[in-house]
Design goal:
heterodimer, A: MetI-like fold, 2 domains, 13 helices, about 70% helix, flat, B: MetI-like fold, 3 domains
Chain lengths: ~325, ~550
């Protein structure tokens, strides 16, 4: 920026005076702390998870029970108390949350975004946007409670075989929870579409409907996709709602079969809460398995964030 | 080709698809909002149970509260829509201020002794005065000297002069700190007078500045004296209402005086909006009259689960007796800790990235890193807290400090991102003007950038704080207790929190008893506090967006 070089020129003489040095160092340390957090997170998750696996435990000097990576990644049974650590049972449940919630959140979120960016008057928008923010601000534990107390009983007459704890209500509340995220990021992308493109569309005789669906949405596609990925990563990391609503029995279910959504299951995040908050106490293999799940979760969400960033950057239409 | 058909159809556009699409979109937008609103109404109904009240109770309040308020609102609206807005805002202000004062009162009843508070304030006020004197005495005093004097003044005041080998070696202090001196005084005024001494003057000063502005001295003194009288009356009258005078003073100073000051300011400075004050006045008078009438006639109110007992008692194994007090207090302490730990660092990082950072690889790494940290699930931050603080640093699990640090790390990226946006919104010209006047970078940040972006930063930090108090998973991971019977006495004690208590009730005590009584009540309190915080943030944002 030209402003920056101007500022640099004007402040060069004073830049090493004690107050300047002190304040600059303080601000720099604050910013560097975020790097330290990431490094701490990665080092900690890696070393703790290393204590869990057979091949790496000797490296960090841990003796005792361990589990093999193959067993962890391909096993389909999750029973920490009897030494079965097949994370697939948890991953499939997480996948179910992802699929179920996206069926609700993606269409509704994009619909909301189109409405807010193309149709809503400024006055309507000034009411709806804070409303959506409040939707996003309700604690997840409250959503979990809503799922077991109101949503499941409401659904039970219509869905045969729906137990008290089930994936269906968990998916519904997670879906509702992530609507604001899809909506706000997609809307930003749509608002960034230049007015000229819309005018050109109207000039060609297109209706508002055609302009919205054939010009605005395709132009903002990269932003919409990146909002999808971010929202899905949020759904994966969502903890309390699924812990309360989905029950605590790990089962290996087929996420692509709608009938399995009436069952209870244990997504990764809920498994972590169950292990730490439950009967497992410090040091044992089950305790260390929490970090193994944690690093799996961290890697998945990090990958999704990076992909979302990449999509938004790489496929952005430049105007 | 059938050119004929093309000509016939030319220029005709079906509106059906477009209209249908439009309403579909509207439905999509409203779906989530309506759905959650319905659920909130359900839970409020379960918690407050308005239908258990006598019909006469409803009728009384309908006559004394609802109808007069609607009438006053309609009247104000006819005179001036701005007046109605002021009136509604005043009501919101009263509610939020009372909530806030309740939390503050809780701290002084159970956690911080009034004497400790007074000693601490004095121990901070004296060195602050010394620093200001040094700075304004002579600008030629070098920065290093100023810095040394400041640090020394604060240190001496808070910790005293250590013994010859320093307190590190376990030698007791030679000269007690000002803090220790005040706290150890053999005579002290009554606790509520101490509270009135510390709370009254600042509130009175701000109030008189707000109401009297640049009017004459007499108005200032009058307003200030009025505010002081309200604060003192809070302490003096509290015993008659069966409340301790200490919380009485706090509630008067934090919850009652500010809305009164705002109302007085409206009445004095904005004559056209004066009529709007009828609305809050009607609400207050209407509720009082209604309450008296109901009491006299003997209509029973609703048997709400959110009652005084729920707010002031601790957990119990029967849902009807279970209370929320330790959880509310724990959440307040956690919030304070998070604010102290995360806000300076977050705002500092934002200032660095916006004002100082050179355009190089390291800056880009920090940039990408922050957006990735914002996407890390909260439960993983809990693991970080557990592994780093409990396992490696051997901290006891579940303490306020630990919870605050973990939640602070969790909201740090959010604080940084929102503070950066606020700082970026400061026009480049104002910075250039500052540099043009010969200001240094730090002077520009201190005098131009931070003051101009203050309300934006405040909005973002309030929203982030709201996120922090709603979080449960990190607290479970660091081993915060599910059930706590008292408020933590300090930062190094274990504390519960509101969402954690709700989770404990809906999992450990799962069953119809808790599902129908304690949990809805807890949810209502939690959501009410969050909605209050979010609405403060939104009102603040609307205000500064409209002024710029």
């Amino acid at each position: 920026m030209s402003g920056d070089s101007l500022a640099d020129d004007l402040t060069r003489r004073t830049q090493n005076a004690p107050p300047e040095l002190l304040s600059r160092t303080f601000f720099f340390v604050c910013a560097a702390l975020s790097i330290a957090t990431t490094i701490g997170l990665i080092v900690l998750l890696t070393t703790e998870a290393a204590k869990f696996f057979t091949f790496s435990a000797p490296l960090v000097g841990v003796e005792g029970e361990t589990a093999t990576v193959v067993e962890f990644l391909t096993g389909t049974e999750w029973q920490p108390t009897s030494g079965r650590f097949g994370v697939l049972a948890l991953v499939t449940a997480t996948l179910m949350v992802m699929i179920g919630s996206s069926i609700i959140a993606l269409p509704l979120g994009v619909g909301t975004a189109i409405y807010l960016s193309e149709y809503a008057s400024p006055r309507v928008r000034s009411i709806l946007k804070p409303g959506l923010e409040i939707l996003a601000g309700i604690p997840t534990v409250v959503y979990g409670f809503f799922a077991i107390i109101y949503i499941t009983p409401m659904l039970q007459p219509f869905v045969p075989g729906l137990g008290t704890f089930n994936m269906l209500s968990a998916c519904i509340v997670v879906g509702i929870m992530i609507i604001p995220m899809v909506a706000s990021i997609s809307e930003d992308a749509m608002s960034a579409v230049p007015e000229e493109l819309r005018q050109a569309g109207y000039g060609m005789g297109a209706t508002k409907f055609e302009v919205s669906t054939d010009i605005v949405v395709p132009s903002a596609l990269s932003g919409i996709f990146s909002s999808f990925i971010l929202a899905l990563s949020r759904a994966i990391g969502e903890t309390m709602a699924v812990t309360i609503a989905a029950g605590s029995t790990a089962q290996f279910l087929n996420p692509f079969n709608p009938a399995t959504y009436t069952e209870r299951a244990l997504p990764m995040t809920a498994a972590m809460i169950k292990l730490i908050g439950g009967d497992v106490t410090g040091g044992g293999l089950a305790y260390r398995s929490v970090f193994a799940i944690g690093i799996t979760l961290f890697v998945i969400t990090l990958a999704m964030n990076v992909i979302s960033d990449y999509v938004a950057q790489r496929y952005r239409e430049e105007y | 080709m059938a050119t004929n058909n093309e000509i016939e159809g030319f220029g005709r556009v079906s509106r059906t698809a477009g209209t249908l699409f439009r309403y579909l979109l509207l439905a999509a937008t409203l779906f989530g909002l309506v759905f959650v609103t319905i659920l909130l109404v359900y839970v409020a109904n379960d918690a407050i149970r308005p239908l258990t009240a006598d019909p006469g109770w409803h009728l009384t309040f309908f006559l004394t509260l609802v109808i007069p308020t609607l009438a006053a609102g309609a009247y104000a609206n006819r005179r001036d829509i701005a007046a109605l807005r002021t009136g509604v805002f005043t009501i919101g202000f009263v509610v939020v201020a009372l909530m806030f004062s309740g939390g503050a009162a809780m701290i002084f009843v159970d956690i911080v002794e009034p004497l400790t508070w007074l000693a601490f304030l004095l121990a901070l006020a004296v060195p602050t005065a010394v620093t200001m004197a040094v700075v304004s005495y002579d600008h030629r005093v070098s920065f290093v000297a100023q810095f040394v004097v400041t640090v020394a003044a604060f240190y001496l005041s808070l910790f005293g002069v250590p013994g010859p080998l320093g307190s590190l070696a376990g030698v007791s202090t030679m000269v007690p700190s000002l803090f220790g001196f005040v706290a150890g005084l053999p005579f002290a005024p009554a606790p509520w007078l101490m509270m009135a001494m510390t709370f009254g003057p600042p509130v009175a000063y701000v109030g008189s500045r707000y109401v009297a502005g640049d009017r004459d001295r007499r108005t200032h003194v009058l307003v200030g004296a009025g505010v002081l009288a309200v604060v003192l009356a809070g302490g003096a009258l509290a015993p008659f209402a069966g409340v301790d005078p200490v919380p009485g003073v706090v509630v008067a100073a934090v919850g009652i005086a500010p809305p009164l000051v705002y109302a007085a300011g409206t009445a004095v400075n904005r004559p056209t909006e004066r009529v709007g004050l009828l609305v809050p006045a009607t609400v207050v008078v209407g509720s009082l009259v209604g309450a008296v009438a109901v009491d006299v006639v003997g209509f029973a109110g609703p048997q709400s689960w959110v009652d005084w007992a729920f707010l002031t008692s601790s957990h119990s194994s029967t849902a009807a007796e279970a209370g929320f007090y330790p959880a509310i207090g724990g959440s307040i302490l956690l919030m304070l800790t998070v604010a102290v730990l995360a806000f300076p660092v977050g705002i500092g990082a934002a200032v660095y990235l916006e004002e100082y950072a050179p355009n190089n690889r390291f800056t880009r790494i920090i940039d990408v890193n922050i957006s990735n940290l914002a996407g890390v699930p909260s439960v993983v931050y809990g693991l970080l807290g557990l592994g780093l603080f409990v396992t490696y640093l051997n901290q006891p699990p579940g303490t306020v400090l630990l919870g605050g640090a973990t939640l602070g790390l969790l909201i740090l990226p959010i604080v940084i991102i929102s503070a950066r946006e606020a700082i970026r919104a400061v026009p480049e010209e104002t910075r250039a003007a500052s540099y043009g006047m010969g200001a240094t970078k730090w002077q520009t940040v201190k005098n131009v950038v931070l003051p101009r972006s203050f309300s934006g930063i405040l909005t973002g930090t309030i929203l982030a704080l709201g996120r922090a108090i709603g979080e449960t998973a990190p607290l479970i991971m660091i081993g915060a207790p599910n059930v706590k019977y008292s408020l933590p006495a300090g930062l190094s004690e274990a504390a519960s929190a509101m969402p954690l208590q709700v989770y404990a009730w809906s999992s450990l005590y799962a069953g119809d008893d808790f599902y129908q009584k304690a949990v809805p009540a807890g949810v209502v309190v939690l959501v009410a506090i969050l909605l209050a915080m979010n609405s403060i943030a939104i009102v603040l944002r609307n205000k500064y967006q409209s002024t710029e």
